[in-house]
Every structure is written in C-alpha cells, then in structure tokens.
Amino acid sequence: MSRRIPSLKALSCFEQTARFGSASRAADELYLTQSAVSRQIQGLENWLGCKLFNREKQRLVLTPEGESYLQSIRPALDQLESATLTMLSGGSESGVLTVAAPPTFGSRCLIPLLPQFRSKHPEIAINFISRIGMPDFDREQIDIAVLFGQGTWSDLDAHILHGEEMVPICGPQLIANLDRAPVADDLRHFPLLHIATRPRGWADWLAASGLHDIDGDNGPKFEHFTMAMQAAAAGLGVALLPTFAIEDELKSGRIVAPFGPPKASPFHYYACCPTSRARLPKIRAFMSWLDQLETAAQLTAKIMREDR
C-alpha cells in the first residue's frame, strides 16, 4: 500500500518558507521561482485540508496548524538528509571536512592540534577557512564552524572548545615614562583600543576590576585581534585581548601586560554543526575527537608545550 506522504518538493518549500517567512527567500534557497514555491505550498494546504501560513505585514507566519506540522516533520526531514549525506560519502567516515573558524583562534588554538586528528582519521581531508560569526552552512558548504558565545544557538549541535581570558596589553614605550609600576587605575590615562567582535569587552573588564568611573565604551575600534595587538604594540593605546592570541608577543617583550591579571570571559568557543548533520560520519568523527580533548586549561597548556 502506498504511503500517504506529500511530495518532498512540497515539504521543502514549506520548511524553507517557514524558515525565512518569505516565499521569495525560500525560492532563492531552493533555486525555484516564487510562483513555484507558492503553488507547492497551496497544493500542500489543499492536500492537508488546512491553512499553514497567515500573512502578517510583509511576512508569512505559521498558523498553529502549520507550526505543529513543521515540528512533526522536521526530525524526519533531518534524518532523511543525514541518511542521504552518509550514502553520498560512501557510508564511511571518509570525505572532505570543511571547518570554519575565527582567524586568530583557528591559527593559534585549533590548527596546531589538527595533525592529531589526521593521524587518527587519515581518510578525512580537512579544508580550513577563516570566518567570524555565524556562517550560512548550506550556501558556504561548511560542515563545522567555531562560534563564540554561550552555546545556545538553535538548530546547532555545540561542543565546547575553549574559554577566554582577557588581559590589557600595550607596547613598552607607552608606560616608559611612569615613575612606578603601572596599576589598573592608570588605564584612565591611555586610549582604550576596542575590538569589533567584543563591543562590551572593556566595559565588562573594567566593571569586574571595580573601575566604574573609567569610560570603557569609547575609543578606536579594530576588526581583528591581530590589528588591535599591532596598534597596541605601536603605542596607540591599550588593547584588551585574549591570552591565547598574544602568548608569543608577550614572550618576546614586544608587548607587556602591566595592568593586572587576566579575567575570564563568560563566553566560550564552540565547535558547531547543524543538528540535522550531526550524525554524518565525518562530522561525528571530528566532534568525537574534540570531546576527547582535555579541558580548556589543559588544552591551552598542551598548545604552549608543543609551541616550545
């Protein structure tokens, strides 16, 4: 007896329209015309005998029936995608794994450990790309992305990787004229250099240090850790940077950290993949390997030992 199941095309149009709140956006995602997506959704509504979307202003919003149906079919669609990707990879852990990570974290913390993964899984080739923030996993064909935050992203499996301790640093010349050892309160006398991805970095660090009367919101802004470090080393001011990003520069004396000890950030780095793909063998192999690594403190110590 044949199954009473709508076409996969109709279900894909329904899922993507629900995701974007727009038939036009869904059409772009599925490489269809907007009218084709609308016809598929109308046909699905007729087949089910209920309305799946309401139009509110310029968005298509799920009806209660549509929301219930989406939650019911999404696990089945995820499982179908996972099974298909597994078959396409030959049903084994072989294949190409594309990992995206912020440039400094990737180069200093993750890439040094990849030879260990390759020794355990030589059948998996790794492509490593630089990316800050949430990628489009589908369009960019990314398998795993390293994200910074609290690990609560919807529709993503998140594996904790590394904490972050922030410390103020500067070039030695910036404090050369002080007639005593610098203290945290001296930060009020220097420009504070900010990082675009850590807009609350200085404000949070100063508050944690009890320095509530220093302006931690204003100052020159830089896009990357490396740019802020270079600016600080050149004497432009004091940058607040994660310890893992500046270990070599501190050892060489190019920069100094005289204003107090590092303070832990409430956020962490996570290795993330779409939940629907978490069972794909090559992703499962990489995530399992990450889970076997030491805690954040042990991981940092290991990298430092290997860099010596």
Automatic annotation (TrEMBL):
Q: Name one Pfam family in it.
A: HTH_1
SUPFAM superfamilies attached here?
A: Periplasmic binding protein-like II, Winged helix' DNA-binding domain
Q: What is this protein called?
A: LysR family transcriptional regulator
Give the keywords, sorted: DNA-binding, Transcription, Transcription regulation
Question: Would you identify the family this protein belongs to, as annotated?
Answer: Belongs to the LysR transcriptional regulatory family.
Q: Which Gene3D superfamilies match?
A: Periplasmic binding protein-like II (3.40.190.10), Winged helix-like DNA-binding domain superfamily/Winged helix DNA-binding domain (1.10.10.10)
Lineage, top ranks: Bacteria, Pseudomonadati, Pseudomonadota, Alphaproteobacteria, Rhodospirillales
The HTH lysR-type domain extends over: 6-63
Picking any one GO molecular function of the record gives: DNA-binding transcription factor activity
| Any one GO biological process | DNA-templated transcription
Which superkingdom is the protein from?
Bacteria
Q: Which CDD domains does this UniProt record tie to the protein?
A: PBP2_GcdR_TrpI_HvrB_AmpR_like
- What InterPro entries does UniProt report for this protein, alphabetically? LysR-type_TF_proteobact-type, LysR_HTH_N, LysR_subst-bd, WH-like_DNA-bd_sf, WH_DNA-bd_sf
Source organism per UniProt: Thalassospira profundimaris
